[in-house]
Structure formats: C-alpha cells, structure tokens
C-alpha cells in the first residue's frame, strides 16, 4: 500500500470523483480542491506527495499560474505536478512544462496511464530529492534545499533547468540522447519536439556561463549531451 497523498485540483466534480476512485484503488490517499485558493490551502496544510492540476480553473488564477507560484516557492517547489488539460496542442504542453510541471496528460486519459504516470513522476522526484549534495567541478547541487551554487555563489535557476541540471549531475560522464533526456527529466509520453531540449540546454549554459561552468555540459555529436568535468584536448 502507498502512503502518499495526491492532491486533485479540478473544478469538475465528476472528474474529481473518477480520479479519487482510481487513486484509492491504486492505494493512494486523496485530497481535493476546486480552485487555486482551495489548492493552496491543501498544500500548506497537508503538503501532498504530488499534485494533479487542471489547466483551466475558475477564478482569476489558472492551473498554470498555480504551478508557477508553487515552483517559485522554495519550500514547495519540490512537490511534483502533473498537468491535466483538454488542450492537446504542442505549444500548450511546452507552456505547461516550462511553468515547471513534471508531466502532462491530455483529457480524456485512461486510469491505467494516470497511475503509471503518477508512479513514474514520484520515482523521479524521489531520486532527485535525495539529501546528499552533489559536487562536480565548481558546481554544487543541494537536492534537499533545491539550491545550486558555484564557488559558494548561488546560481539563480528556474525549475525546469534545475531538474535538467540535477539529472545531469546525478548521471555524469554518460552521453544521453535528446529522447532519453525528455523521458528522464520530463517523463515518458510527453509529446514535445527534441528541439525543446536544445532550448533548455542553451538556457542552462547561459545561467552557468558567468560562473565558468557552462563547459560542463558538452555536446556529443551524433548523440546528444553529456555532463562532464573532463575537457577533451582539441
């Protein structure tokens, strides 16, 4: 049996009830909220293991707004978020992932796939939230505080680039294809183009460049990218 609590943020009662039943059958406990205000209160009171977040919500704030708010809060940023939405266009998915969502599901979805996605995201979240800091070269990553420093100076980094860097630093000296990075960092069955990885790699390198750490992320021709402190001679 699982002990994790999953917060369902969805304004349609019928969908909430279906998801609650699905989670209970899989051994998860459920929390519910119909809007951002209720969701925030549930997060503060219970700190769920994961949030299933509908894109469209009543009121002034959307699911995307709530996701951004969570990921900008140092105390709440590590809670994984799976976006649930009827929007199927690729740019909407990229928009949700850029806001910090860990995965993305388009309605209607199968209950088996939902549970599979939840378990996968929880596994990745657990792997990235280990307490032991990782140090490679000038860089240090503190998973517990979700903080990155270079030469003892804090690197201002967004949630998506943090997850990408955390994966790289947890798996150094190995080349990964763009498809592998999409699967490991964003989750399987996320239908976004490989060029999305290139965009986030450029952003991450730009953030690390002032600290002379951008060369740690190396392009492997014909494959993808590798994180390494070893610079091959030209």
From TrEMBL:
Provide the alphabetized UniProt keywords.
Activator, Cytoplasm, DNA-binding, Phosphate transport, Phosphoprotein, Transcription, Transcription regulation, Transport, Two-component regulatory system
Residues bearing 4-aspartylphosphate? 54
What does the record give as the DNA-binding region? 131-229
Q: Which domain of life is it from?
A: Bacteria
Chief location: cytoplasm
Domain Response regulatory as annotated: residue spans: 5-122
Functional summary from the UniProt entry:
This protein is a positive regulator for the phosphate regulon. Transcription of this operon is positively regulated by PhoB and PhoR when phosphate is limited.
Q: Which NCBIfam families match?
A: PhoB (TIGR02154)
Question: What Pfam families does the record point to?
Answer: Response_reg (PF00072), Trans_reg_C (PF00486)
Annotated OmpR/PhoB-type domain ranges read 131-229
Q: Which CDD domains match?
A: REC_OmpR_PhoB, trans_reg_C
- What protein name applies here? Phosphate regulon transcriptional regulatory protein PhoB
Q: Where in the cell is it found?
A: Cytoplasm
């Amino acid at each position: 049996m699982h002990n994790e609590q999953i917060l369902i943020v969805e304004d349609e009662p019928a969908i909430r009830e279906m998801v609650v039943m699905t989670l209970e059958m899989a051994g998860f406990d459920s929390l519910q909220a119909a809007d951002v205000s209720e969701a925030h209160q549930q997060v503060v009171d219970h700190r769920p293991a994961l949030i299933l977040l509908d894109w469209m919500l009543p009121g002034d704030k959307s699911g995307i707004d709530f996701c951004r708010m969570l990921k900008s809060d140092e105390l709440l940023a590590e809670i994984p978020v799976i976006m649930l939405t009827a929007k199927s266009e690729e740019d909407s998915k990229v928009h949700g992932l850029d806001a910090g969502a860990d995965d993305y599901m388009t309605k209607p979805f199968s209950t088996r796939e939902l549970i599979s996605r939840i378990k996968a995201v929880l596994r990745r979240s657990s792997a990235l939230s280990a307490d032991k800091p990782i140090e490679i070269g000038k860089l240090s990553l503190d998973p517990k505080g979700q903080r990155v420093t270079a030469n003892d100076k804090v690197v201002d980094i967004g949630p998506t680039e943090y997850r990408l860097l955390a994966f790289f630093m947890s798996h150094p000296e190995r080349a990964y294809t763009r498809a592998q990075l999409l699967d490991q960092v964003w989750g399987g069955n996320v239908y976004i183009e490989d060029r999305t990885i290139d965009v986030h790699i450029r952003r991450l390198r730009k953030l690390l460049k002032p600290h002379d750490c951008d060369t740690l992320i190396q392009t492997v021709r014909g494959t993808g990218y590798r994180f390494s402190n070893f610079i091959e001679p030209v």
